[in-house]
Amino acid sequence: MHKNTSRVFVLTIFILMLFIVGASYLHITNGVFDMSVIDVVKTLLRIEPNPKFDLVIFEFRLPRIVIAALVGIGLGMAGVVLQGITRNGLADPGILGINAGAGAAVVIFMFFFQLNLVTADMSSWVSILMMPMFGFVGGAMAAALIFSFALKNGHLDMQRLILTGIAINSGFGALSLFLSLKMNAQDYESAAVWMAGSIYNANWIFVAAMLPWLIILGFYVYRKSYLLDYFQLEEDSITSLGIAVEKEKIKLLLASVGLVSACVSVSGSIGFIGLMAPHIAKQLVGIQHRYVMPASALIGACLLVIADFIGKTVFAPSELAVGIVVSIIGIPYFLYLLVKSKA
């Protein structure tokens, strides 16, 4: 049984990586400026380099694909952690308001430091590297508020958790909107596009800003993923195994908030990836979290790269924010899970 699960897991990972490569190929060759596979290969391998192709690939398309994949990985892993901690299949960083808390903190940062994400370049690199830290503070505040209100007799009340999350989400969303309306016209436009969930202005500084968070916290939550299996048991049973339940939950929660904050700081608020990816992963590789975690990360990456490609091409030359594309897919899926959980 174990060998069979391992084989299914390896096959699933391989297929998901093929999907990501295929989606990246479509993304990098299609757009307002179409390129052939030969052009792309020559440019990447530095054979007869062409300044025009260099600009399109290395400055516009490649950082965008990398950011989409990294954000998908971060949100997919954070979704697994939140669903595991809360034992609630409907838990998601967006629905629980953690996205909104991190987003509000980043908007506050943009407001006081007058950072325009659309025109951000190398001169803004210090500000961009600081953004995940601000996002972490906002996300942690949102998580603290949500979990303090959702506690009932020392235990998480799932109904309260979702309702509190929705309320916190609305509150932080209103704060972000209020602050963005106080900005000048150019900064407001940047903030509004960013809040919708957009990665069209991705660059390598954004990659550098989020990569350390993703590597360190991603490695940590994967190492601790076995605890999520235990968290599905009754609390008395977990305590009898010598696990400091609340302490471990807080550590994992803070790590997932860090992952979400790093993602939100470079892409804005993109919901539903953390909801969909873990569910799809469990259907593909089973319920053991050491298998679910990497599968969910790759599914998140695949979903976001495909969604960004759709947003870039369907209404070309205009673009649809990737957060809106994901919501169009995610809202029906959320309603399906809601109906399924009641059945």
TrEMBL record:
This is Iron complex transport system permease protein. Belongs to the binding-protein-dependent transport system permease family. FecCD subfamily. It is found in: Cell membrane. The chain crosses the membrane at residues 7-28, 62-82, 94-113, 125-149, 161-181, 201-222, 252-279, 291-311, 320-339. The keyword Methyltransferase does not apply. It is a multi-pass membrane protein. InterPro entries: ABC_BtuC-like (IPR037294), ABC_transptr_permease_BtuC (IPR000522). It comes from Lysinibacillus parviboronicapiens. Keywords: Cell membrane, Membrane, Transmembrane, Transmembrane helix, Transport.
